[in-house]
Amino acid sequence: MKRPTKGELLLEVGCEEIPAGLLNSAREQLQEVLERELEARGLLMGGKVRTFSTPRRLIATCATLAVREPDRETQAIGPPKSIAYDAQGRPTRAAESFAKRQGLKVGELKVIETPKGAYVAAVVKQRGQPADNVLKALLPGVITRLSFPRSMYWTSPGGLHFIRPIRWVLALFAGKVIPFQLEGLRSGDQTFGHRLLAPRPLRVRSFASYQQKLRRAFVRVDPDERRAQIVNECDRLLERHGLRRRADNELLELLVNQVEHPAVVLGEFSRDYLALPAEVSVTVMRHHQKYFSVEDRQGKLVPHFLAVIDLDGSGSGQIGRNHEAVLAARFGDAEFFWGADQRRTLAERLPLLEQATFVARAGSYRQKVERLARLAAWLGENVTCDGRRADIVALVRAAELCKSDLTTEMVGEFPELQGVIGGLYARAQGEAEPVARAIYEHYKPAGAEDSVPETHEGALLSLGDKLDTVAACFSVGLIPSGSRDPYALRRAAAGVVRIVVERRLRLSLLAAVEAAVSIVHGSGLVGGEEAGLATTILSFLEERTRHLFRETRGFAYDEVNAVFAAGWEDLVDTGARLGALREIRPTPDFEPLAAAFKRIRNILEQAGGSERFLDREINADYIEAGAERELYDRFLKLRPRVAGLREKHRYAEAFREVASLRPQVDRFFDKVLVMAPEEARRENRLALLAQLLGEFSAMADFSEIVVTTKGKES
Q: Which domain holds residue 107?
């Protein structure tokens, strides 16, 4: 009977409830770590590790794990041949000792050539270990290697730290238990059903039986299955009423990770609460109760909500009434806060910002809005969007009032509404619509999935707010390092870049940073020298800009390097040059010309650098007829044409003109000796190459482009 060559692995770590926001990361870590370790030991057989999770468990499985590690050969280097053998070629004691340590006979040693000369070597065959033994040693380390923002211990301070106490470990390979201990807890073949609906232990032998038994015990281990269940149940409950769930993928993901057996309850609330702004109503339902809002086909909020519960749905009537009572109390609070906050205008709240600390050592929010008003005025005067300038009076007024809502009861209870509620209060208190709208939008984008402000005033206020935050924090030494970023400065920087790019704001980012730094310094904050601080902040923004164009916009890393080398502080212009470069790159002449530019740069660097030759006048008398003259004449003809296209931002056409140089450049390198023996002629040719490189690198440094030659990158 043929022995099996593969078996199924099943691992489950059963815990107290893991916070929903950490489950996806934990699941991804488990897959990455386990897959890497199994691959390193030759056990994966080309298969994949699949991972699943619920609030109470992390699961990994692989259907095709090898039953044994592959055999391996290792080579151990011993003493030099001259020491291992005497003049007659007989093994010495050194050779015998080395062979004994390797478990070999002297005659089995080999002589190999190394960079240091001839050495004795032993080739040792290592028999692969059974997968059971490997997994027994491997799995405890995989579990303990999972990292979380905060962990806890539940036995002793020196014991195992994990996000929550581990209550059981199921570990099977080919249907048999992989025996190991984790903080005194023995692995086994048991899992447990739903904590309330079926808490009994369940014995399993495979992933199929595991899923089947848990489903009967009210646990769906696949997050995709729970997600589909929630969406389908919401649609079913609302369809007969002609209503729909307000889309909220972030909330949906959170709820998927909060339940093992999802059921949905449709509840309602008093229509009177719809008098509150929709933003307030949605926030009350979403952030505090984790309910989906419900709207009609026109997108208008209706007095219903959807609650996702971790039960079987029986008795949902009473459960729904309980949720309705809790929500009514929350709405009552919001209604009270709305009325109470209106007794004092945003302008009247400004003195209260003196007591609200912005950031430790970076002053109060009152000081921040004073800086922001000055920066907003600068931005209004210096930044355009499609040729239009912002309403500077409205922009400065919005800057003065944009943080006043931090002193309101509404934001105190519902901090998610900061900015939004300020805009709503400004409108209710008679402020001009551009002012109210700018305040409403000035925290956007709040994250990678959020949109940028829609109005010009809102975009500039958000831009100024984020630049001031970065400049103030950097000024007092609060600079992100490694994974630490307690003031979310990377997110602020990413927001700056997205606003400029997506709103197509024309400005010099360096000038904006210098303005922000100057205002911060003028306000009395202690910091480093202004120019040095501005340079540091600009480098910080450059990282986020490169990330945006590479990861979000999909430009190749060498395209980004090429364009950034020619300047990147005008992000709209940078984006246009990148788009043109990507458009022209597939054309036949482009990459060969890029390779030639790389060759030109190397020649100039060996000759002392292109800067030495850029300002030298090219002497036409030294230009020889033939290939050199052809290149020189073509360069003189193209230079003004490319410059004109560049000034009009017609970069794709400009790149095509540059690419048309390829025949002349190729002939030049085929026929002309650049490093001619005569110094004057050599210097003249280097000046020609330097000016050609400098002139046409004003849009992108072509030498940064990675070109492919016969399947190899260069």
A: 72-126
